[in-house]
Amino acid sequence: MNADIRLALPRLHGNAVTLLLVAMEFTGSSYCGSYRNGRMEGKGEYKLPTQTRYEGEMKDGMFHGKGVLYFPNGSKYEGIWEKGICKQGNYTFSDGLQYQETDWDYCDGYDRRFYTERCHGLKPAGESQLTNEDPPQLIPDGCYDCRDGFYNPNTRVVSDYEGSFLRNADEEEHEWIVRSCRKSWDEFVGRFSGKSSPEERGASDTGLSSI
């Protein structure tokens, strides 16, 4: 190898690192760790714009080896990565519950208790938990709690519990949230649905109506 090229390589690698840092700053990401030949390699921490962060081994600018993804809601995914692809791993919810691909018995058709209820017992009638967290998150008016933040169906935006932007919901996620998630308002269902006030409901049930 030409001596001039060998002398220039450290500067070239330094420039590559600088360009990488500028690119990550532009996208809102950041990296703190070791480099090799101007690329992320070794052990480090990579933080995504969503505040999800990866801590572990890197190679050739990709997740490679053992590493952990930490999510903003407190959950984590521990895995073994190969060229940026996770080959195997385990997901742990923020409350400590570990997900199992087989023999999963949490919140199935036979046992609907939340994990915290399984750990600490059921509360008396009238004080039943609405969510795994107790007390539950206070949902802003007109929004839904989609478990990693609040969803505004008018703007189609999911924000974290601190109010920071997470993502725009596509049509499939919008329909799932509206159908499945807890909302900030109560709805009357069954025989009283569609009646706007307790007075109207009472008059209808007794056969009385306003004249």
Automatic annotation (TrEMBL):
Keywords: Cell projection, Cilium, Flagellum, Repeat. InterPro entries: MORN, Morn5. It is found in: Cell projection, Cilium, Flagellum. This is MORN repeat-containing protein 5. It comes from the Eukaryota. Pfam families: MORN. The lineage of its organism: Eukaryota, Metazoa, Chordata, Craniata, Vertebrata. GO terms for cellular component: motile cilium. Residues 192-211 are annotated as: Disordered. Gene3D superfamilies: Histone H3 K4-specific methyltransferase SET7/9 N-terminal domain (2.20.110.10). The gene is MORN5.
